[in-house]
Amino acid sequence: MPEVNFAGLVLVPELVITVTVILANLFMFLIKRIFLRKFLLLTDRTSYFYDSLLAHSLNLPLTILIFVIDIWILNWLFDKYDIVNESYTSSISLASKILLITAAILFLNRFAVGLLANQTQRSDSLRSSTGIIKGIVKGLIVGIGILIMLGTLGISITPIIASLGITSLAVALALQPTLENFFSGVQLVMDKPIRVGDFIELESKEQGFVERIGWRSTWIKMLPNNTIIVPNSVLAESKIINYFYPSKELSVPVDVGVHYNSDLEHVEKVTLEVAKEILVSHEWGIDDYDTFVVYHTFDNSSINFTVMLRAKEYFHRFFIKSAFIKALHKRYAAEGIIIPYPIRAINTEQESPRIDVQTTNIPNNAGEPPSQ
After folding, report:
1. What is the Cα–Cα distance from 242 to 210, expressed in whole angstroms?
2. d(CA 100, CA 177)
3. What is the pLDDT of residues 271-318, one digit of tens each?
4. Could you confirm whether the keyword Cell membrane appears in this record (predicted)?
């Protein structure tokens, strides 16, 4: 083993290698610290999310990269001073490859999870399904990374893939209902027929707010404060009325009937005035909605028409309709407009039926036995 002369001092190679690796390590960590600090300060000045995410995702992978560079320096020094044999050098090279793959997995995992977290914060439909999407992404990244590691180690991954295929088939058959619900949940999240917070009506007529879309089922909170738990597969195949899509605004039809002797033009004018007044003054009315009246039926005792109002949300329609009915009733009374109602007269006095009976003379002794 050769000795090293430095400034007149005779140093053993082990000491030179140790000092070199330590100094290189300290230098690289200092460079990393300065680089990340400058990078973070630069990203904080911008409004972009991705550069900040990139800076935070590089922290741990850069640390692993520094250790890989240490291994390369150590391997170069060992080879220079002929300290170790060739098999040890190949082991060091293999370890550095595994560390590089690990650093890449950690970087991709943190960056992908950060992207998902940002998207779920801006999307109500994804917020409740963050766990599902994160699990899928992490599983894909880690699975691909493990397969690459096994290939780097010289292990054939073909039998593993074949075994995974057979195992996956058996698991899929055993967990068919669960997997069906899972992929139905993914479909609901991607297709977005419903979102968290939407008020919906199921095909079975239950109504409620969507609380969350989970792995297996969707939770719907009903008005009486009960919760319906519906399997995702059932929900994906059912007809659903979404009262919050495409917007929360809702038309409110109100049916009214007036007397046949009414002036219909005057009735329409008064009704529209009341409707517009309610939509402007009521806190849950749409003040810029162009309301209208449509006559449609000659009924038994009235001419019927429909007034179209507009509410901000599904539940507001009850209050809008109530306020309109009260105001319209008061205005009709002031204008002399009659809202008729059917009157039925019941004749309780009925004549007795006449029965004409023809009588014949019947002897008094009829029916008695003849006298002897």
Report:
1. 10
2. 40
3. 999 999 999 999 999 989 999 999 999 998 899 999 999 999 988 999
4. yes
| β-pair partners for 256 | 305
Q: How many whole angstroms separate alpha carbon 273 and alpha carbon 328?
A: 9
CATH of domain 177-242: 2.30.30.60
Q: State the maximum Cα–Cα separation within the chain, in Å, rounded to a whole number.
A: 181
Structure-block tokens of residue 129: 């399904």
pTM (global) more than 0.90: no
| Letter string b/e over residues 73-103, b meaning 16 or more CB atoms within 10 A of that residue's CB | bbbebbeebeeeeeeeeeebeeebeebebbb
DSSP 20: H
> Which CA distances in Å does 42 have to 45, 51, 55, 118?
6, 9, 10, 20
DSSP 285: B
Bridge partners of 307, per DSSP, are 254, 293
Residues of the chain with pLDDT under 70: 1-14, 47, 81-89, 120-132, 172, 174-175, 343-372
Instruction: Give the C-alpha separation, 175 to 359, whole Å.
Output: 93
Output the DSSP codes for 200-214.
Answer: EE-TTS-EEEEEEE-
Q: Which three-class secondary structure state does DSSP give residue 244?
A: coil
Distance CA 79, CA 92 (A): 12
65 backbone dihedrals φ, ψ, rounded to 5°: -65, -35
User: What is the C-alpha to C-alpha distance for residues 326 and 58, in angstroms, rounded to an integer?
Assistant: 66
Mean pLDDT score across all residues of the chain: 81
Architecture of the 250-335 domain: 2-Layer Sandwich (3.30)
